[in-house]
Amino acid sequence: MTMNRRSFLQIAGASSAGCALASFLPGTLGALAPSPLIATGKRTPSICEMCSTRCPISARVVDGRNVSILGNPNAKAFGGKVCARGGSGHSLLYDPDRLVKPLKRIGKRGAGQWQTIEWDEAYALIAERMQQIKQQHGAESIAFTSKSGSLANHLFHLSKAFGSPNTFTHASTCPNGYVVAAKALFGGGVKRDIGGAKYIINFGHNLYEGINMSETRAMMQAQMDKGAKLVVFDPRFSICADKADEWYPIRPGTDLAIALALSQVLIEERLYDAAFVDQYVEGFAAFAQQVRQYTPEWAAEQTDVPAADIRRIARELAHHAPHAMVDFGHRTTFTPEEFDLRRTLYGLNVLIGNIERKGGLYMGKKAKGYNQLAGEKVAPTLAKPGVASMPTISAPRIDQADPQLAMAAASGGVSQSVLDAVLEQTPYAIKGWIISRNNPMQTIASRGRVEQALKALDLVVVCDVYITETAALADIILPESTYLERDEEISDISGKSPTYYVRQKAVEVIGDTRPSWQIWQQLGHKLGLSQYYPWDSMSTLQLAQTGNDASLLNHIKQQGFVSYGEPLLLREPASVNTFCGAYPNAREQDPDQTFASAMRFNTPSGKIELSSAKVEALSPGRGVIRYRPVKLKQDNELYFIQGKVAVHTNGATHNIPMLAELMSDNAVWIHPDTAAPHGIKNGDAIELANRNGTEQGTALITQGIRPDTVFAYMGFGAKNPELKRATGRGVHCGNLLPHSVAPICGMSLHTAGVTLRKI
Ligand SMILES: Nc1nc2c(c(=O)[nH]1)N[C@H]1C(S)=C(S)[C@@H](COP(=O)(O)OP(=O)(O)OC[C@H]3O[C@@H](n4cnc5c(=O)[nH]c(N)nc54)[C@H](O)[C@@H]3O)O[C@H]1N2
Ligand SMILES: Nc1nc2c(c(=O)[nH]1)N[C@H]1C(S)=C(S)[C@@H](COP(=O)(O)OP(=O)(O)OC[C@H]3O[C@@H](n4cnc5c(=O)[nH]c(N)nc54)[C@H](O)[C@@H]3O)O[C@H]1N2
Ligand code: SF4
Ligand SMILES: [Mo]
């Protein structure tokens, strides 16, 4: 749907006339008194932002103050619960150290000298510098980065209106290994029905520490209520490994060898679902031919996992098929061969035919397709408000210089390429970087190179809630209101049935902060780009999403989280029978009582592409999956790996009072056999070093790690003085990681070699 100013204004007019909404919508920030909802101390349903899982929450407010955050009981899959971080949102909200006023740098970059300024001055300074850069180097020489989500859309809209194609999310530091692999195989993303699985193979998907409330709870249910068996491969004894039936301390970066050997056994022993493969899979023969050589005995040598176990696990997987799953993971930065690793993990699910089956992988059921299957309008569809005529941008994206990264460039981009463009002008110079809700100094890897790049730029703008390590190097810092103080668009999180939820302001704004949709719009106006901003408030945008249906918007806001219809898995007869029972005009079932014939794969062949001609064209030799050995460390080094800890988020929460109190340091996990020759004891001061950097921390001696590997929870060890509860505590992982770009998916690498010594 496109929209001009007139239709937007009509909708805006409707919103002020629609009295049901008027008392509910807080309106433009600062313009209205606290809404009755806030004043009466009710719960406001909203969306957490303490991590990007973005769980549905319910924020209780008494006398204008947020006093607790619980889950939204309407969100059954989330159990109506939040995690420890989600429950401490008010500690961020009321932290006296958070940013409450725009800041201008007055000393040298990184010198920590700031002056508070008014918003209008901040916009004017940024706009002037942006126009200068545009005149001298072209609009494309400004890059825009934001962690993906509703905030990113507004920053990227500004980028496009300004004329730069260079927009980046956090994708290449987190999900793009599996995202790009899913594009190649399925033509789009797939979800996992962990709760329905009887047998789960898990390659370092740390769900009991790297928490995603719905998936973490699904795994707990599968294990505790349904007796599912869990097999974990992880170089260290994670909490997930602790709760598993079997744990294999795999050699870092070698998971692909196990995945290929599991495939080899399934094919060699004819344990795979041949009927499914025949009907839905393209490129099976080439894959089968390639994997013949990848026997469990071969994989055992690469991985240190016994061949007999690999063979047995493959048979057990097949035995539980199709209600079994090989989890494709979340953070995909273990190896430069992420693309083939994640393709093979998907491939194992395809081989056992669990697609659209209980306990397997499935595609999100959005309203449009769901309604078509039901033969009636079960769920409302949402419009995508936009602007009909955006400027044409002729400059290529910087990450398109390498054609094999085309798929990655189209889904979030390769953010490390900003560093090359700043420091080496490849493929052309980037001169300005506008960063929102992203902390590359902690999270891109190669801290030293990120620092060099930030210091070399003509303009650095950071929008955050703290003076992070990245913000510490900015020219202007823009303080965003926290998620508890702002409204945002309705989000579509359809799973097995269409589902919407919405972020709502729970308390009045503290200090002089603004939501990022408004920040980037106001900067747009200052840049003379008002024609691209026909909306005037978030409620205008929300109403436009609902097609001007005020009662629908009101309903979604009151519930916070609304799920429509019956859960549907297209190849699960019981699910399809229930669906057809509920909707008399539903599509006719296939002879096997499923909707299998309704499955669509948006790939060139229309099938699941286990081998891909499209990938072959992008990068000759990569169409068919194969094993390429990787060297992640020198012989005298240890592997250095990282993971999430349950009480912190990435490089984000270490200064939040309640969470800093729970944990403020990341001791380095070292095996006793590794520590002994160095004379290192528990709690000793140690140093990790490599050519990327040197970090000092403390030792945690534990059997729960391979002797050739050391581990640290990420996000600690900030180096700027502004983060007083986090700075100088623990090792900074990004400082020890290389600058790298993985083939096809463009991932950065979070595994490195390090030397260890006692200080
Ligand atoms: N060494 C190492 N590096 C890693 C990883 C690792 O395991 N090891 N993990 C990777 C992964 S999986 C990911 S997803 C990335 C994440 O890295 P990033 O994308 O950088 O995300 P976060 O660290 O979660 O948060 C970034 C910033 O958002 C700010 N923030 C929080 N709420 C708001 C808000 O409402 N508005 C604004 N404007 N800012 C806000 C926080 O203060 C923080 O500075 O890191 C990656 N980097
Ligand atoms: N509490 C908490 N929850 C979070 C987050 C958080 O920061 N804190 N972040 C959110 C985000 S952005 C994400 S992406 C997810 C991340 O979710 P996950 O990807 O599950 O989490 P991680 O802990 O980063 O890494 C997973 C595991 O990989 C192991 N590992 C390291 N190298 C290898 C290897 O080569 N092979 C194998 N098999 N394992 C390896 C680590 O020891 C770790 O246990 O969590 C989300 N939830
Ligand atoms: S997993 Fe925890 S921190 Fe992340 S969104 Fe959910 S409740 Fe919030
Ligand atoms: Mo992530």
UniProtKB/TrEMBL annotation:
Cofactor(s) named in the record: Mo-bis(molybdopterin guanine dinucleotide); [4Fe-4S] cluster
Record keywords, A-Z: 4Fe-4S, Iron, Iron-sulfur, Metal-binding, Molybdenum, Oxidoreductase, Signal
InterPro entries: Asp_de-COase-like_dom_sf, MoPterin_dinucl-bd_dom, Mopterin_OxRdtase, Mopterin_OxRdtase_4Fe-4S_dom, Mopterin_OxRdtase_prok_CS, MopterinOxRdtase_cofactor_BS, Prok_Mopterin_Oxidored, TAT_signal
Signal peptide: 1-22
UniProt-listed Gene3D superfamilies: 2.40.40.20, 3.40.50.740, ADC-like domains (2.20.25.90), Dimethylsulfoxide Reductase, domain 2 (3.40.228.10)
UniProt keyword Nucleus, yes or no: no
Domain spans labelled 4Fe-4S Mo/W bis-MGD-type: 41-97
Source organism, top-level taxon: Bacteria
CDD domains documented for this protein: MopB_CT_Thiosulfate-R-like, MopB_Thiosulfate-R-like
Pfam families: Molybdop_Fe4S4, Molybdopterin, Molydop_binding
Similarity annotation: Belongs to the prokaryotic molybdopterin-containing oxidoreductase family.
Name recorded for this polypeptide: Thiosulfate reductase PhsA
Source organism per UniProt: Ferrimonas pelagia
